[in-house]
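fyi for ur records
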Amino acid sequence: MSLRRFLWPALLSLFLHSFLTPSASAIEVRVLIVESAPHLTLSSPSPLKVSGCPSSSTPRWYPAHEKIYISYDPEGLRVGGQGVISHQGLSAEADLASHVQVNDRSYRGRVEVYRENGKEGLLAVNVVDMEEYLRGVIREEISPEWPLEALKAQAIVARTFALRQLLDNPQQLFHLKSTTDSQLYAGRQGEDHRSDLAVEETAGLVLTFQGKTIPAFYHAACGGHTEDAADVWSYNHSSLQGVPCPSCEFHPVYNWQASLRSEEIRRSLARCGYRVGGVEAILPLQRSKTHRILELEIRHGLGRMLMEGKRLRQILGYDLIRSTNFSVKRENGSFIFSGKGWGHGVGLCQWGAKGMADRAFRYEVILQYYYPGTVITRREEALD
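which gave:
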């Protein structure tokens, strides 16, 4: 599908949905912000209310700026020198105009602290209104200096992704992580006036397909063509089909290269439980229609093994092997990986969205290009 051929139906859809007035009734999301910590500190510039979670005792109020030291105990949570005061969890909440400080980072909403099952560590979960959550996401995912239409597209995609996670995991301790396992979230430190504006001007809007909220995956740069979700996760969704992307070619790592010695690759494989000898060859066996490696063969001193391209990328490091669209050759005991793009390639190409916004395309057109057949819908109408 060319961008030119796509433009007319996209503009028609834009006209049909231009009457949408952003509306965002409160919906809370639960975001994992600390994991496997032996201890942490809580504080607030305003008085902080700390209670058992679920509530089982009279809350205790701590003065503004007082640091509350919480540590793991086999019997529960230990707060300062008071001993164990909760066997399940704690909830810390400041007034609405303030925030809760967790170690060196501050968060809107409230923070809940739990013991981590099976480990001697703590989990901290930020329970926050979705729109406030998005304020801490957008700048972490793309530059706030990008065109506002690209920021709006990112805001809707991030909101859609978060809502889909909430709908899929409604009873879980947390719906999202604050890392690339979900989407980056930095709390109040991640906020910026331009990304805040993008959240505000798209408040409550999400992407749906046939009335259902889509799993709105996205990535940094596709390298010329986005990928079918079915070729990445064996998950076939009509709105997650690959499309040509002529707009991301100015990404700094549209083309990339990485060099790893044979022994480095062997050690990385061994750390992940693979028993291998010295790596002798890495041979692509099957590629998707967009040239990404689906399956490859690793020949080594103890034999050979087959592996998915995405698994090898995970083992060697996402920041090093930046996509599965690569070729590999051996030179003087090292393997040279040469590739295109950064990320899994499914859904919105962030640098492609910037390229379209630079050419004056509105966010509605950008989204319907990268997610074919979707409709921009008020969030309260998409709570399936």
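The two ends are 30 Å apart (CA to CA). thats all i got for now
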